[in-house]
């Protein structure tokens, strides 16, 4: 498509957009079962629209917004067991993880930096490693898909800059034994980064509901940084990730002087320069609006629905659960996985098979009626 010489009317352009996006799956259709995103909360959408012009890349111009971002970071830190945190609302889990690795690398100051991480870690760490010149040292998983802590210990060497643990793995929603990883990190004087991009907005509420999930946050002294994404279970519009550091020195180690900004020179730690203030304000607004009890209600419903769904799956011949769900993620396998995936996609389901299973994420837009429809299709396909 070429850059048009003359403009078209808004009506025509919108019409074309409607036509073209007709191919998209939408969250409200209930067909998207394999995504960690959801339809954002209407209040968060309103906040984003109202403050759409705010740029946190030049905070001297938007001093109020900068203060709100700091408060959002403080509220996230407090959810994660820390009185005062240092960090930013960023573009997502990928940027948050890259910043964490950057801080670990810069503070370690070794020539050939190595990072130890579970085989279940998100691919954002591969991007981080490539960009930052860090070698990834993988640790294998136990039978329950948590990282093998003994193997993590065996991998520690002179060049190790830190350890990564996952609180809510991308594929299965498994929470690593973060308490043991934290002890290990303290024993060896290494920082532990916890990737709770998904679990951060689930685990604190699930624990309050009585679910037996390991501790994962700053209450464990070895944990020095946490990724927590409001644009997943936080119900804030994309892009909204979060990186929280325990100590200021982590943030300082990745801050670059931005000398020419209209609002005056600043030290900037994020990867993006110009960045949306509106989304950071929406994080703040959603936390204020829903509060702990509001998020707890959402998590309660989705955790219960995930367990019901797992129970139903177990009764379908030809498919099997990979493991009992820990969070609101249910993954199942089948001997005929590829055919199953193809047929489910042909019926309009937004799912994907990877690592030998299909992952269903019971996000806020996923209702029981959608899962019932999905189960009907699954039964029909597996019966043939
Ligand atoms: N970390 C984990 C555990 C994730 O599951 C994901 C995304 O699914 C990410 C990081 C990356 O997040 P984003 O896609 O927002 O960059």
Automatic annotation (TrEMBL):
InterPro entries: GrpII_AminoAcid_Decarb, MfnA, PyrdxlP-dep_de-COase, PyrdxlP-dep_Trfase, PyrdxlP-dep_Trfase_major, PyrdxlP-dep_Trfase_small, Pyridoxal-P_BS. The keyword Ion transport does not apply. The modification N6-(pyridoxal phosphate)lysine is found at residue 232. Pathway: Cofactor biosynthesis; coenzyme A biosynthesis. It comes from Thermococcus profundus. Residues 1-20 are annotated as: Disordered. The gene is mfnA. Belongs to the group II decarboxylase family. Sphingosine-1-phosphate lyase subfamily. This is Probable L-aspartate decarboxylase. GO terms for molecular function: aspartate 1-decarboxylase activity; pyridoxal phosphate binding. Keywords: Decarboxylase, Lyase, Pyridoxal phosphate. GO terms for biological process: carboxylic acid metabolic process; coenzyme A biosynthetic process. Catalyzes the decarboxylation of L-aspartate to produce beta-alanine. Its cofactor is pyridoxal 5'-phosphate. It is an enzyme of class 4 (lyase).
């Amino acid at each position: 498509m070429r850059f048009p010489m003359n403009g078209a009317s808004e009506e025509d352009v919108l019409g074309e957009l409607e036509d073209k996006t007709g191919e998209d799956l939408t969250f409200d259709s209930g067909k998207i079962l394999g995504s960690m995103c959801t339809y954002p909360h209407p209040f968060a959408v309103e906040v984003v629209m109202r403050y759409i012009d705010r740029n946190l890349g030049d905070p001297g111009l938007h001093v109020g917004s900068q203060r709100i971002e700091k408060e959002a970071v403080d509220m996230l830190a407090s959810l994660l067991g820390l009185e005062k945190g240092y960090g930013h609302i960023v573009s997502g889990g990928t940027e948050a993880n890259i910043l964490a690795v950057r801080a670990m690398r810069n503070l370690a100051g070794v020539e050939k930096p190595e990072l130890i991480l579970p085989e279940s870690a998100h691919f954002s760490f591969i991007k981080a490693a490539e960009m930052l010149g860090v070698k990834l040292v993988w640790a294998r998983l136990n039978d329950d898909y948590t990282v093998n802590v003994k193997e993590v210990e065996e991998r520690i060497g002179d060049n190790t800059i830190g350890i990564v643990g996952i609180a809510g793995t991308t594929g299965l929603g498994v929470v690593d034994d973060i308490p043991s990883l934290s002890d290990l990190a303290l024993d060896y004087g290494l920082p532990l980064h916890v990737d709770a991009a998904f679990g951060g907005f689930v685990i604190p509420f699930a624990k309050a509901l009585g679910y037996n999930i390991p501790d994962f946050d700053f209450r464990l002294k070895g944990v020095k940084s946490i990724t927590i994404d409001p644009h997943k279970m936080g119900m804030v519009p994309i892009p909204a990730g979060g990186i929280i550091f325990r100590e200021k020195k982590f943030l300082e180690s990745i801050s670059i002087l931005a000398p020419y900004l209209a609002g005056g020179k600043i030290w900037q730690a994020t990867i993006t320069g110009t960045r949306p203030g509106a989304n950071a304000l929406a994080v703040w607004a959603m936390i204020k609006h829903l509060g702990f009890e509001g998020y707890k209600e959402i998590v309660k419903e989705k955790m219960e629905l995930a367990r019901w769904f797992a129970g139903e799956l177990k009764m379908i011949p030809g498919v099997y659960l990979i493991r009992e769900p820990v969070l609101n993620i249910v993954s199942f396998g089948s001997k005929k996985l590829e055919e199953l995936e193809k047929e489910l996609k042909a019926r309009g389901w937004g799912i994907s098979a990877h690592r030998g299973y299909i992952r269903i994420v019971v996000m806020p837009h996923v209702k029981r009626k959608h899962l019932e429809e999905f189960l009907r299709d699954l039964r029909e396909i597996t019966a043939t």
